[in-house]
Amino acid sequence: MSLTIPFEASAESNSNTSTKINTDATNLQDDSVNSPAGLNSNDSTEAKFDLNSNETQVQNVTLPDGKQGTFVVEPEEQATNPKTSVVRASSVKATSGVHKVSFYSGPVNASFKVKISNYKITKAYGKWYLIIGSSVKSSKLKIDNSKQATLYFTFGTPIWDFGGWNGWLRAKIKGKTLYTSIK
Questions:
Q1: Nearest CA among 131, 124, 173, 115 for reference residue 150
Q2: What share of the chain in percent tops pLDDT 70?
Q3: Residue-wise over 44-75: b if at least 16 C-beta within 10 A, else e?
């Protein structure tokens, strides 16, 4: 099921665009230690997006612990037109362009950009995260293969910083669909 709502693209843009909210999401669960994302150590929550859309797409998901999270896939805007100084909405398609992949919830917020060419990921960059309630021992953004890029995390406990668990934000291309997941 999908719902399209209007929104303002950015502070620099004077044009309105719309956001497509897709409610098709999957939770994959296990009964292990909870991470700050509300996921257990072997859980992941996945959402899918149409790569041929040039609109920002948003999916609200329910995490295994019942809390809410939001996946966002945004095609990057094209450069400002030098003749008019107007930033145009992107006409980026999966065959070429940059998409920002994001996940937001209360304690876990992360994003990165992927450059896609001919339905293959050619570059992953621009990692960002804000994790509350856990220390991040390490983070690494890498292209796992031509169809998948992942921002990996190693978490520790906030007080003693011992033990810990691993998690990630992932973008994976299957056909003309971009799957995003968080663990």
A1: 124
A2: 63
A3: bbbbbbbbebebbbbbebebbeeeebebbbbb
Q: Residue length, the chain?
A: 183
Question: How far is it, in rounded angstroms, from Cα 72 to Cα 171?
Answer: 11
Pairing outcome for strands 56-62 and 16-22: parallel
User: 117: how many CB neighbours lie within 10 A of its CB?
Assistant: 13
| Full-model pTM | 0.70
Q: Is 1 exposed, middle or buried (0-12, 13-18, 19+ CB in 10 A)?
A: exposed
pLDDT at 183 over 80: yes
3: pLDDT strictly greater than 70 = no
Nearest to 56, CA basis, from 78, 75, 69: 75
